[in-house]
Design a protein that fits this description.
The complex is a heterodimer of chains A (363) and B (139).
Chain A lengths: L8 H8 L9 E6 L5 E5 L11 E6 L2 E7 L9 H21 L6 H19 L10 E8 L7 E7 L6 E9 L3 H22 L2 H15 L6 E9 L4 E7 L5 E3 L8 E2 L18 E4 L5 E5 L1 H4 L10 H12 L4 H16 L8 E8 L4 H5 L4
Chain B lengths: L2 E9 L3 E11 L4 H13 L5 E11 L1 H14 L11 H5 L14 E4 L3 H10 L7 E2 L2 H7 L1
Parallel strand pairs in B: 2-3, 3-4, 4-5
Antiparallel strand pairs in B: 1-2
Classes of the chains: A alpha+beta (363), B alpha/beta (139).
């Protein structure tokens, strides 16, 4: 029996905290041998692929903690996703059961709470440390959760590459949150296995089209950042194109175009890759349409031009500065208007000068 | 945010309904639009020209409505958008194959709306006419 050392209650506390449920219930976190933790709520299926299970208290409910064994080149991803799905479905069902004779308003509130919980549970807590790069992220849920998600993680090849994903499930509420919960591990494992974003996105689309029938779609921007060559290779499936902000102020800010259709609607996408070589100080801004669709009381939308102006003004700062500037600008524009959509932003900036650059200048 | 819909029946080569959208189509009202289309199908509509001339904004949620309307006009039970996880297990007919269908066509998208259709690739699902008049004549 594996001791499950990596999955300590201390480490799991923050991961499972979003699942704290005043109505009781379970949360499950599963870690594979490479240290990837997938967390979900509901009940662990009896045949869950765990070899060590311990229970820790998590609010009024219990958290089951397991460590996955026997993972080969990938088949375990299926069971993990299946168990997540089963757990989430169960939780979704229980939300209705809690209010059997409840009013529509009660049900709506329960669903809103549930979709927010699912959403929060899948948003990474802290971005990983990527050597030579600063990563800053922002996520803000609309009242009726829109199904945005993002992911920044080191690839399992340990060759100094990182996966970067931002996506938006069209639609809202539980249906969108559940599809998000289904899609996020799919994209992640596809990036890990394919090692190429175009292949990964095509594979994800194929699974989405074949394995599920949903009225909803997903726009996704998935990339692999090589920390040694500093090349970011992206595949864009119907998503807002990312902004490239050069560290050199003489070079213009530009959108990195090149995309294909969104996920879930067509059997194949025919995507082409888009690539950018990041020089010192270069920043890439990935965002969901919640940013540009931000609506003012007048009905006007924030739009591309305002975004570009904010980005231009903040380009000298850090990734975090950039993010804060964009968020502040959309908030100011929005005033007291409620948010109709989730807002998600990921900024990745190559450090202006790494120690290595100074020690061994190129040339 | 508001969306107004008006309908007109056209007895062309095949009878079809012109559904004109005015305002903004987004997360707050896309389900209502799907409901409207379902009602039209129940009352006999089998083909539809969606007039987008008055649509000033199309959010990604709105794409779900457009796609669902295609499925409804094809006689498929469009998924209950509120069905949560059931949606993912629903064994319906195949969704769009990518072939251009003609039962639902679009007319008069403004540049902002057309950009969203192009970015997301859903433009390939529809015949898109420059305006309502051309759409009605060519349907």
């Amino acid at each position: 029996m594996v001791a499950g050392a990596a999955l300590t209650p201390e480490r799991l506390g923050p991961i499972l905290a979003p699942f704290e449920d005043p109505d009781g219930g379970f949360a499950i976190a599963v870690e594979d041998p490479d240290g990837v933790v997938l967390a979900s709520a509901g009940q662990a299926p009896p045949d869950a692929p765990v070899d060590a299970v311990e229970e820790i208290r998590c609010g009024p409910g219990k958290a089951m903690v397991g460590r996955v064994v026997g993972r080969g080149s990938g088949p375990l991803v299926g069971p993990i996703v299946a168990s997540l799905a089963a757990s989430l479905a169960e939780l979704a069902g229980s939300a209705h059961e809690h209010h059997p004779g409840g009013t529509a308003a009660h049900r709506l509130e329960a669903e809103l709470a549930l979709s927010r919980r699912i959403q929060r549970s899948l948003i990474p807590l802290t971005p990983p440390d990527l050597r030579g790069f600063e990563v800053a992220t922002h996520y803000e849920a609309a009242r009726e959760v829109g199904g945005d998600f993002f992911d920044v993680f080191p690839l399992r090849d340990r060759a100094g590459r990182a996966g970067i994903v931002i996506a938006d499930v069209t639609g809202k509420g539980i249906a969108a949150a559940l599809l998000m919960a289904f899609a996020r591990p799919l994209v992640r494992s596809a990036l890990d296995q394919a090692r190429d974003p175009v292949v990964a996105i095509e594979r994800t689309n194929k699974i989405l089209v074949e394995e599920r029938r949903s009225a909803l779609f997903i726009t996704a921007l998935a990339g692999i950042l090589d920390l040694r060559t500093r090349v970011l290779r992206l595949a864009n499936a119907g998503h807002e194109p990312p902004l490239v902000v050069p560290g050199d102020p003489a070079r213009p800010v530009r959108w990195l175009t090149g995309s294909g259709p969104l996920l879930g609607a067509f059997p194949t996408l025919g995507l082409g890759p888009c690539e950018v070589q990041l020089a010192p100080g270069d920043l890439v801004l990935l965002y969901t349409d919640g940013v540009t669709d931000t609506r003012a009381a007048s009905g006007e939308r924030f739009g591309d031009d305002r975004l570009l102006a904010v980005v231009e003004a903040a380009r000298a700062g850090s990734a975090r500065d950039m993010l804060d500037a964009v968020v502040a600008a959309t908030h100011a524009f929005q005033g007291d208007e409620p948010s109709a959509d989730d807002v998600t932003i990921v900024a990745v900036k190559r450090e202006a000068h790494t120690r290595r650059d100074l020690a061994r200048p190129k040339g | 945010m508001s969306l107004t819909t008006t309908t007109e029946q056209v007895a062309g080569r095949v009878p079809f309904t012109v559904l004109a959208l005015e305002g903004e189509l987004d997360a707050s009202n896309f389900e209502r639009l799907v409901g409207d289309a379902r009602d039209l199908y129940t009352r006999g509509t089998r083909a539809m020209l969606i007039d987008l001339t008055g649509l000033t904004f199309l959010a990604s949620s709105g794409l779900v409505a457009l796609h669902s309307i295609v499925r409804i006009m094809h006689g498929e039970q469009a998924d209950d958008l509120e069905a949560g996880w059931d949606v993912l297990h629903h064994l319906g007919h195949d969704t769009a194959t990518g072939d251009s269908q003609r039962d639902v066509q679009l007319a008069g998208p403004q540049p902002a709306v057309e950009r969203v259709l192009q970015r997301t690739g859903l433009d390939r699902l529809f015949v898109i006419h420059p305006d309502r008049t051309t759409g009605i004549a060519d349907f």
